[in-house]
Design goal:
By secondary structure, the chain is an alpha+beta fold. It is built from 16 helices and 16 strands.
């Protein structure tokens, strides 16, 4: 017995229908959903945050680039402004002289100013003086020529925009230079302008890279706007360098995607840590549920198996608990005590009740079984003689004469043939009715013969063809009343464990009740349909009629002794006996209705007999 319960427990724990397996599936599903939800939450929190930081960093580098370019050009503009608003420059433009050129326009002075090129330009754009020096303070004619060509292209009015000075970038050959322009006035800013001071300072890629802190920076072709192109590990940034009429070059450099990589690593670490934590919590929760819930329920189940197998209503011994499991054990033990008391009371009452109910029940069932016989006999006695013997003899006599016309002869032959067919049909109908009466009488004798055998003992169960029992009782029930009843039932065999005689009486009683319910509606006919359904290891028989039905509120009292749904009828023993008989065959009987005028359903549930059914099918 211990091994069988252990094997049963293992099978149930492995079965998806067991509580343990369901809890494991639920916890696993919760874990997966929690991990997915946590991953989404972290992804929506961490990744956007680091992406924003990365965008802010990119914007910061772009602004730093603009600021560095602006600061570099602004220094050149301020130097040009210092020279432009200077009395010496103002006087020089009125009267150029060598002394000013050697003192303020010397290479050493340009080095001190931090410019590479310088020029004084009149209002008519003519050049007064220009100079370009290299790092050794030598004049570079080629670069000076590039500066002069650039000055010739500058629209000073547009560049200054009404101001005294301006700065921008220009391409001087293959060199990028920051240009500072200032009007030439007196030191106090007065006097009519006498031209412009133009100063240039070369800006190379290396120099700009040093200003921005990038080792790799290139000056590319001009672009109209800032460009940011992200890659897996780097971001390409291109910032346009503005001249007097638009971009003249682009500062291009790369940024490592440290922030996004850091965000991805943090997201991965957060997800892994969260999943591990959630896994530990679920494992601990599963262990606690197994210890606190599953194991105690398994002990209750094992004890119920022992009670079911042995029939001994022993109490379950369990450590006292104040939770729901403790309440379950207490209720289970209370139920066992009540069942034990009820068993003892039933054993005392069963014999007395059995003797009294058995006699009345057999009379009730015999009455139902005799109704078809009475109907058949009444129908036979009430059938009128449709054929007049005198007319038939007269037809034979006339046909025997040889002088009758051929047409008359054919009519007489047709009449005698129809008369013979009517006699044959009448004989066949009487034979069929006698056969039904004989079957009903056999049912009565079988009920009487078996009643004493099953009156005080639990009926012996055997494999019965439920479909065949339904068909036999349907045939008899057609003649149990005055109305016409249409029956429908399945043809496939269905095998149940029951006592064939008692089950036939129960089904016959239910058919009789259904016929009475149809007659109570006042209609001349009705229908009774039968359906059989497989319910795991049991079969469900449903008998449905379109009779008067009953109030659903009265359903609990239908099986009480003496209760009837019809006011003109007393007794009610049939349903009471039927319910007890089905219960004795380890089944159930229920009556259902949607209310008055909606018909009723009788539902019988019995154990299926699959193996015996297969053997009987083969034998058939």
């Amino acid at each position: 017995m211990g091994e069988s319960f252990a094997a049963l427990r293992r099978r149930r724990l492995m079965s998806p229908a067991s509580l343990g397996a369901k809890l494991v599936l639920i916890l696993t599903g919760v874990g997966l959903l929690g991990a997915a939800a946590m991953t989404l939450v972290l992804a929506f929190v961490i990744s956007p945050s680091f992406n924003k930081l990365e965008r802010d960093a990119v914007n910061g580098h772009v602004e730093r680039t603009h600021a560095a370019l602006g600061e570099f050009a602004s220094k050149v503009k301020n130097t040009a402004l210092d020279y432009g608003h200077w009395n010496d420059s103002y006087d020089y433009m009125a009267s150029p002289n060598k002394a000013f050129e050697e003192d303020s326009f010397a290479p050493s002075a340009m080095v001190n100013l931090g410019v590479d090129g310088m020029a004084y330009v009149r209002e008519d754009r003519s050049i007064v003086i220009s100079r370009w020096i290299d790092k050794d303070q030598n004049d570079v004619p080629a670069k000076r020529a590039d500066l002069l060509r650039a000055i010739a292209r500058i629209d000073f009015a547009t560049a200054l925009k009404g101001k005294e000075s301006a700065d921008f970038y220009l391409r001087l050959g293959d060199t990028l230079a920051a240009i500072g322009v200032s009007r030439i006035r007196r030191t106090d800013g007065g006097g009519d302008p006498r031209g412009f001071v133009v100063m240039a300072r070369v800006l190379g890629a290396e120099q700009l890279g040093n200003l921005l802190g990038f080792a790799k920076l290139t000056l590319a072709k001009p672009a109209s706007e800032v460009s940011v192109v992200p890659h897996d590990k780097t971001i390409d940034i291109a910032v346009p360098i503005l001249g007097d009429k638009g971009p003249v070059a682009t500062a291009a450099y790369q940024l490592p995607r440290d922030l996004s990589s850091l965000g991805q690593r943090m997201l991965m670490l957060a997800v892994i840590a969260s999943v591990l934590l959630l896994t530990l919590v679920l494992v601990a929760l599963r262990r606690m549920i197994t210890t606190l819930v599953i194991n105690p329920l398994n002990r209750v189940e094992r004890h119920m198996g022992v009670v079911r197998a042995s029939g001994t209503l022993g109490l379950l011994t369990e450590k006292p608990r104040r939770d729901e499991i403790g309440s379950l054990v207490t209720s289970f033990n209370s139920m066992l005590r009540q069942l034990k008391d009820l068993r003892e009371q039933l054993e005392v009452q069963s014999f007395t009740l059995g003797r009294s109910e058995s006699a009345v029940a057999v009379m009730h069932n015999v009455r139902n079984a005799l109704n078809p016989i009475s109907t058949v006999m009444s129908a036979g006695l009430g059938r009128s003689v449709e054929l007049d013997r005198t007319v038939v003899d007269k037809a034979f006599a006339e046909l025997a004469r040889g002088d009758i016309p051929e047409v008359r002869r054919q009519k007489l032959v047709a009449f005698l043939a129809a008369a013979a067919q009517a006699v044959e049909e009448e004989r066949e109908e009487r034979r069929r009715q006698i056969e039904i009466g004989r079957e009903a009488l056999h049912n009565v004798l079988e009920i009487i013969g078996k009643q004493q055998e099953v009156a005080h003992e639990r009926p012996q169960l055997e494999a019965c063809d439920l479909t065949d029992i339904v068909a036999q009782n349907a045939t008899i029930a057609r003649y149990s009343g005055q109305g016409s009843i249409a029956f429908s039932f399945p043809s496939k065999r269905h095998w149940v464990l029951a006592n064939r005689v008692i089950l036939s009486q129960v089904i016959g009683n239910l058919f009789s009740n259904a016929a009475e319910a149809i007659a109570a509606t006042g209609r001349s006919g009705g229908s009774i349909s039968v359906a059989i359904h497989d319910r795991d290891e049991r079969l469900e028989l449903v008998i449905r009629d379109d009779g008067e039905g009953f109030d659903p509120a009265t359903a609990p009292t239908l099986f009480q002794r003496g209760f009837s749904t019809r006011a003109h009828k007393s007794g009610g023993l049939g349903l009471h006996w039927c319910a007890n008989s089905i219960l004795a065959m380890e089944g159930t009987l229920e009556l259902r209705s949607e209310g008055k005028g909606h018909g009723a359903r009788a539902v019988i549930t019995l154990k299926a007999a699959p193996m015996l059914a297969a053997e009987k099918e083969l034998a058939a």
